[in-house]
Amino acid sequence: MSTPQNIPALLSQDQDIASLIRSEEKRELTWLELIPSENYVSRACHEAMGSVFTNKYSEWYPHKRYYGGQDFTDPLEELCIERACRLFDCKYANVQAHSWAPANIATYFALCEPGDTILWMDLWHGGHLTHGHPVTYISKIFNFVRYKMKDPDTGEIDYDELRRLAIEHKPKIILAGFSAYSRELDYQKFVDIAKEVGAVTMADMAHIAGLIAGKAVKNPFHYGFDIITSTTHKTLRGPRGGLILVREDVDIAKKIDKSIFPGFQWGPHMHIIAAKAVAFGEALTPDFQTYAQQILKNAKAMETVFRESNIRLLGWGTDNHLLLADVYGSLWISGKDAQNVLDEVGITVNMNAIADDPRKPMDPSGIRFGTPALTTRWLQESDCREVAEFMIEAMKNKDNWTKKQEIRMKIRIIAEKFPIPDNFISTSL
Ligand code: DSN
Question: Helix, strand or coil for residue 148?
Answer without folding.
Answer: coil
